[in-house]
Amino acid sequence: MKENEVLVKVEHLSKKFCKDLKTSLWYGVKDLYSNVLGNTQPRNLRPKEFWAVKDINFELRRGECLGLIGHNGAGKSTLLKILNGLINPDEGKVTIKGRVGALIELGAGFNPILSGRENIYNNGAILGFTRKEIDTKVAAIIDFAELREFIDMPVQNYSSGMKVRLGFAVAAQLEPDVLLIDEVLAVGDLGFVLKCFKTIDTILPNTAIVFVSHSMPMVSRICSQIILLENGTTQFQGKEVGKAIDLYYNRFIQNETNVVFTDGSIILEDIRILNVVKNNSEIPQLAWGNDFEIYLKFKLNEVKNNIIFIIVIYDKEQREVAYIKYNEEQLTYNEFNKCIEFKVKHYRLELSKGVYSVDVSVNKLETKEPYLRVKGALNFQILNNYDIYPPFLLSSEFIDLTNENDKRYNL
What we know:
Layout: E1 6-18, H1 21-36, E2 49-61, E3 65-69, H2 76-83, E4 91-96, E5 100-103, H3 116-126, H4 131-145, H5 160-173, E6 178-182, H6 190-203, E7 208-212, H7 216-222, E8 225-230, E9 233-238, H8 241-250, E10 258-262, E11 266-273, E12 285-287, E13 292-300, E14 307-314, E15 320-324, E16 339-346, E17 354-364, E18 370-383, E19 397-400, E20 407-410
Parallel strand pairs: 3-7, 3-8, 5-6, 6-7, 12-18
Antiparallel strand pairs: 1-2, 1-4, 8-9, 10-18, 11-13, 13-16, 14-15, 14-17, 17-18, 19-20
Helix pairs in contact: 3-4, 4-5
C-alpha cells in the first residue's frame, strides 16, 4: 500500500441527460446507430438536453476526503454514480484503483428479499472478498450495525435507519480503497452518526473518501478538500473548505426581510450594521473581534408602553448562537415621526468566520406576547483568516505551567 497514492483521477468528466423520456429514447437509438458507424465524437447539446455534470477534474489520494456540496440538482449524486460505475459519462475519463465501497442511495446494493447476513456476503463478493475473508469480518459488521437480533430478517422489512446501519457497516468494516458516501448518514440517529465519524477517522489514512452532504458541520468535520457544484459545473475547488462553505451559504441569503408575524401596530423601518468593513460585498462584513453595532428604527402606528426589543443571532445552520440582552430602560418615543430609533452595541464580537443572520422581535414586557417578528431581518459575515466551523472563536491565552516562570502566549 503506497502513501499519497492517487486512487481516484477524474479528467474532463461530463454527463448529459434529456428532460423528456420519449425524446431520450429517440436520441438513444440515433446514438446507437451513430456509434455503429464509428462516430464517437462528443456531441453538443440537443433540444431538451442539459449537462448534469460538465468538465469536472480532480485527483484524490489515499488519506484524503473530498467533499461535494451544492444545492439539489447541482450534479453531486450524478457524479458519484459515475464514480461507482452505475452510469457512463458522455465525455471524459475516470480512473479508480482498488476496491470501491459505496453508500449512494438508501438500500442501494441490497437485495430486498435476502436477509441482512446474505446481503453482507453479496456485497463482500462484489468488492472482491472471498467467503473466507468475509467470514472473519461478518461478526464485526453485525456488531457495528447493532442488528444482531434482525440480521436474518429480509432487508425489505428493515427501517431506513437499519439499512443505513447495515450499509455503512459493510462499507467501513470491509475497508475499501475508495469509499463513496452520499447523504445517507443524515438518516441515522445521532449516536450512530458519531460512531460512523469515529470509524471514518480510523479508516481514512488508508482510504480515499468522496463525501456528499448538505450538512456543512459534517463536511467541515472530515473533508480535506472540497468542490462546490452549481448546475453541474465547478464553482469552487480547493482545500479551503471554509471558503467553499461560505459561498454555499451566500447563495441562500435573502436581502428582503421576512415578517413572520405582525399585528400592524409596529413596523421595522430600518436595520443595518454601522461599523462594516468598507468593500463591495453583497452583505455587511465585520472583522473578527470588532465591536458589533446595529441601528434599528421602528415606526409605531399605535403608542405602546412596556415593550421589549429582542435580537437573536443565528449561525449558518440556523441554530441560535446568541441572544442580545434587552435593556429594560425606557426608550424615547418621537411623537413627530411616530418612531423609536436606537442602536445596540456589543464589544469584541468573537463569532467565528462565516455568515450569520439576525432575527428581531418586539414583545410585551410582561407576557412576551409578540407585536412583531421578523425572520432574517439582517445578514452579516465575519471575516477571519482562521477557518473553523464552531460558531465561536474565543480570544484566549495559554499559561505554561511546566516551568516555574509564568509564561503567557496571547493568541
